[in-house]
Amino acid sequence: MAGGAFEDTEAAKRAHLYEHKITGYFIFSCIVAASGGALFGYDLGVSGGVTSMDDFLKRFFPKVYRRKQEHLKETDYCKYDNQILTLFTSSLYFAGLVSTFAASHVTRKKGRRASILVGSISFFLGAVLNASAMNIAMLIIGRILLGVGIGFGNQAVPLYLSEMSPAKIRGAVNQLFQLSTCLGILVANFINYETDKLHTWGWRLSLGLAVVPATIMFLGGLALPETPNSLVEQGKFDEARKILEKVRGTSNVDAEFADLVDASKAAQAIKHPFRNLLERKNRPQLIIGALGIPAFQQLTGMNSILFYAPVIFQSLGFGSNASLYSSLITSGALVLASLISMAFVDRWGRRKFFLEAGSEMICYMVALAITLALEFGEGKTLSKGTSYFLVIIIFLFVLAYGRSWGPLGWLVPSELFPLETRSAGQSMVVCVNLFFTALIAQCFLVSLCHLRYGIFLVFAGLIFIMSCFIYFLLPETKQVPIEEVSYLWAKHPIWKHVVRGST
Question: For a designed S-S bond to 228, which of 45, 244, 254, 430 qualifies (C-beta 3.0 to 4.6 A apart)?
């Protein structure tokens, strides 16, 4: 059984008996569920663009607008430092952080599908409130509702995709979430570019169009089946087997269904899943899946790269088109990287992507820091040669992040937890991820102002630490059935000493 006693090896012998076919029903379920990533992506893309629109700043943040006009053509480290403006962005992540605990309960008791529906409704309401905002309070309340929607969506969607997927293609299927997120960012950037031309009210359209992905997610969610894992967890065994047969395209699902039932028996014995996460047998999942990977994903410096891109393109002479070109480069690189990762993650494995891309990202951060130390700040204008070099560095960094820490930061944690702690574990993943996202959003600009180019050296050091973390602590999970991942810990050179003797 998954996550329980490691001495029970019978279940571990059943994986080779699993059968599956790629059915239209399976494809439909995964694509609809993955659309939940578009909510997260659209907000990531649209909020950055809206907070740079003059009409939005003049209405809600006039001091920031005046400072922006005074330093319009300068590349100053501190001109965007405003804590109230960053609160507009980070309030969403703090709300998502808190809501994920409620999402964990709903996901476990009512199912993954229920959390997807709740998340879409909350996101829809937040979008409406933001689009009609007349003051900062309405903006913040709207952002909180958006955050609740993202908290529920990010809790349920990666779990849904991992549980619906056959082990051999789980990596690629789970990364539909990241691909959807990246496409959401790309679409949002195009929308921002067009709505910026609609003076006085364009920002309202950008924020209001968030109802589109929310509506798609809600209507699609109504047609989604629940995952067999969740149905077994709720005691609906007959329905679970019917769904499993339908989604696998075969009636020969005895081995996989037996593993689900075994995992469910272990889950039923757990009355306090969050407390169970702290037990010795779950220590690897806690440290790697719930704490390490989601925190490190936000400490890669990706947000700093996205912040700098428009400035660099302005220096190349693109003028008002700078934000569009920078968005095309970064968003396009993310989409391309997601496709690369989807194509090869189940062939090459998770560890290789983490370690290879991590080495690249360290080099790019050091190169960026050295270049900015020599050429940037104090009202200087970057030369075109330097700017072209930085554009290439940005593209390569985003390409490396987009095929490693971006998608794998969601995929790997969703694979690690046994059924009895899966909802609680995913809740911790989302909570930690959103906490560090909010922390970076709230502190990056002030840190940039004080550390200047040194902040990129800090990120390079952090990427080195997280690469060592992966090298020494993460076992390879490619093509391992999700209910049998727990057996990897007993064979790991470090974790076997931790979990040995646990029951």
Answer: 244
Determine the pLDDT at residue 3: 36
pLDDT at 8: 42
Rg (CA), the chain: 23
Of 330, 316, 455, residue with least CA distance to 394: 330
Please give the mean pLDDT across all residues of the chain.
Answer: 85
CA dist list (Å): 420 to 48, 109, 356, 483, 491: 38, 12, 33, 10, 21
Long-range contacts of residues 31-34, Cβ cutoff 8 Å, at least 24 apart? 31/176, 32/220, 32/221, 32/223, 32/224, 33/116, 33/157, 33/160, 33/161, 33/164, 33/220, 33/221, 33/224, 34/157, 34/161, 34/176, 34/177, 34/179, 34/180
CA–CA separation, 425 and 462 (whole Å) = 24
Provide the pLDDT for residue 503: 54
| Residue from 340, 380, 433 nearest 151 by CA | 433
DSSP 253: -
pLDDT of amino acid 459:
93
Q: Which of 491, 165, 164, 174 is nearest to 345 (CA)?
A: 174
Closest CA to 26 of 183, 237, 176: 176
Structure tokens at 445: 């600009």
